[in-house]
Design brief:
There is one protein chain. With 193 residues, the protein is mainly alpha-helical. The protein contains eight helices and three strands. The protein has a three-stranded mixed β-sheet, with no helix packed on it. Helix 1 packs antiparallel against helix 2, helix 3 packs across helix 8 and helix 6 packs across helix 8. The longest helix has 23 residues.
Length: 193
């Protein structure tokens, strides 16, 4: 990919056309001012039309209010506490681009060892309807508070879905479940038996 500014050739074209028009009617000072104005205006319009600055990995077609609500629900319900690596240890100071990608930190107890799933990858495999049904019926192993997910209203579940889809797929799948008696390779939080 070229490091060149994509607006450069468009600005040159706009400025070239403006230069001929101004040169025939006005002096050099007005000509420079018009070039600057046209160049800045044209560049700004092109930047907006081309989506300059917008993250390419995000689905921006969703309803922004729904996405914002989903972000809020994810924050207040503690999804990031387990599903975002380092979130709890840093007091929530993890860049949003790193949220909900699961964690390699396991949770070990009488049930075995579980790992927080990468929700961003999970959501790519589900429709909104499948997500709502899953949230209502799933009973994963501890420490996932499945009852809190089950009891969320449908509007909140759909908002979480919209938000996670907006974040886009990222990261790697979390490690798989280990039954009791199998030693995990990485760090774990141990629950009393």
């Amino acid at each position: 990919m070229s490091e060149r500014n994509p607006l450069t050739s468009a600005e040159v074209s706009v400025l070239g056309n403006q230069n001929r028009t101004c040169a025939s009617r006005r002096g050099p000072i007005l000509q420079r001012g018009a070039r600057l104005l046209i160049g800045l205006t044209g560049g700004a319009v092109l930047a907006v039309l081309m989506g300059a600055g917008a993250p390419e990995h995000r689905d921006t077609t969703g309803d922004q209010r729904q996405i914002d609500r989903g972000r809020y629900v994810v924050k207040i319900t503690g999804c990031n506490d387990c599903h975002t690596a380092g979130y709890g240890q840093t007091g929530g100071k993890v860049e949003e681009s790193q949220w909900l990608m699961g964690d390699r930190l396991g949770y070990r107890g009488a049930w075995g060892t579980t790992y927080p799933v990468n929700l961003r990858l999970l959501m790519t495999s589900l429709t909104e309807e499948q997500w709502v049904l899953t949230a209502r019926t799933v009973h994963p192993r501890p420490p996932m508070p499945w009852w809190a997910l089950r009891d969320m209203n449908e509007e909140d579940l759909k908002a979480v879905y919209a938000y996670v889809k907006w974040l886009g797929p990222a990261g790697e799948p979390a490690p798989g479940y280990l039954p009791p008696g199998r030693e995990p390779a990485g760090p774990v939080v141990r629950f009393p038996n």
